[in-house]
Structure formats: C-alpha cells, structure tokens
Amino acid sequence: MQLKRWLTGIIAIPILIYIIGFCPRWIFYLLLYLVSLAGLTEFYRITTPDLHIIGKWAGHLLSLLLFLSIYKGNIYFIPAIIALWAFVPMTLFMLIPPSHGRQSTGDLGKALLGPVYISLPLAMLMIMDRYPQGNIWIFFLLSVIFAGDTGAFYSGKLFGKHKLHETISPKKTWEGAVGGLLTSIIVAFWFLRILRLHQVDLSMLALVLCLSVTGQIGDLAESMLKRSGGVKDSSQILPGHGGILDRIDGLLFAIPVLYIYLHLCIV
C-alpha cells in the first residue's frame, strides 16, 4: 500500500507542477473541472446512490457552467448559478418524485451540498490563479495541505496513542494531528524562504495554522461522509490513496481560507 502511495505521488506531482506552473491556463482549468466531475461522482455514489441520473447530471452541468463563467470572466453569474444548484434539483424532484418512502428533502440537501462542497472551492482556485503570483499561491496551498497530510499520517503511525475522533475515523490520533500541523509549518517556512512569496510574519503563521487545521477538519468531514455511506474509500482511482475526494478532502476546506486571506491582505 505504501509503495503504491509513493509511486502515485512520484508520478502525479511532476505532472501537477507542469500543469499549474507552465501549461496554458485553460489546461489547468480543465483539470480542475475534471477533478470536480470525478469528486461529484464519488460524492453522489457515497451519499445518494439512488439519486435520479438527471439530478446527478444537473449538478455536473451546472458546475461546468460555473467553471465556464469564471473562465470567461463573468463572475457576476456565480450567485445565479449557486441558486440554480438548489432550484434545479427541487424542480426535478417535483417532476420526477422519488420512490415511495424516500426522503425528498434529504436527497435535495445532498444534491445541493455536492457542488457547494466540491465544485465551488475548486472554482475559487481559478479566481486565485488570476491574482499576482496566483499559481505560486496555489503551489503554496498544495504544499501546506499535502505536507500536513503526510506528516499526520506518519506521525500517527509512529506516535499515535490518543484517538482524535474515534467514531468517525478510528485511525486518526491527536499525535498525528500535531505532527501534521508541525509539518505544514516547516514546509510553509521553507517554501516562503526559498520562493520569497511573502515575508514570514504573524499573519502568515496564522494563515498556515488555519490552513492546516481546516485541512484536517476537511479530512475528518470526508471520513464522516464515508462512514455514513458505509464505504472505506470514495473510489479506487488513485492507487494507494483511494479516490479523488480522499486526496482533496482537506484541500476543499482550506481553499476558502486562502481565498479570504488573499482578498483581505494581498489583492
């Protein structure tokens, strides 16, 4: 399992660096949408496997509309698209009632939650990419979150004794969480030191702490979804890692934190 995990990372990381750092931007944006498409598919499989196929495709197509709107610079369409994420499933459920005994409101909530949880944060990366040194900030975010994941995983295996949230994720420990936090801080420090993206000050330390903590909360939140859905991994698309959601769960929660920071302090 560990060999597969490292081989997947060794193959994926250079490709990701090339796409984010050097490719035409539309290729990066296409990648974000494909990740959103895969993530939404996994989300619906976990939470609402019986959701009507039209409802699922409505989420995919409206997410595509969101990405296209940002790509074209029509950011004023975003509130309308978010509203449609709620209105379209409600209309479909009215026209195609669920089978007897199904909880319509529960399925409606999940149909709305999927795009808000997955597509909207990934679309924020498109907006951040257009900021000064935007792709470098995206690299910074990925470095902090993925380093935290790796640090938490190995710290938990080596030192883990006290369960973090046993009912949701029995293997996660407080020792792993602290190890992930420290790893994120160390990687962020060297990233900033080498690339001189931003001076190392209290605001940056607070940002890294928030990114790391929200990333770990996102990891737990996805574990909660999988446990409620009775699955171990969101899929098997990434050998050694599981599915797309298993890989980006912490990133989804951390993206809005960096988005807000850049708007308040940088842009």
Description:
The termini are far apart. α2 (25-47) runs antiparallel to α3 (53-71) and α3 runs antiparallel to α4. The protein is globular and about 55 Å long. A two-stranded antiparallel ribbon has the order 1-2. The chain folds into 2 domains: 1-130, no CATH class; 132-267, no CATH class. 77% of the residues lie in helices and 3% in strands. The protein is mainly alpha-helical and 267 residues long.
Share of β-strand residues? under 5%
Query: Order of helices and strands, N to C?
Result: HHHHHHEEHHH
Overall outline: globular
What class would the helix/strand composition place it in?
A: mainly alpha
Specify Rg, calculated over alpha carbons. 19 Å
Q: What is the number of strand segments? A: 2
Low-pLDDT residue intervals, each spanning 5 or more residues:
none
Distance between the termini: 42 Å
Number of domains: 2
Arithmetic mean of pLDDT = 87
**Number of continuous helical runs:** 9
Main beta-sheet annotation: 2 strands, antiparallel
Quick tags:
globular, 77% helix, 2 domains, mainly alpha, two-stranded antiparallel ribbon
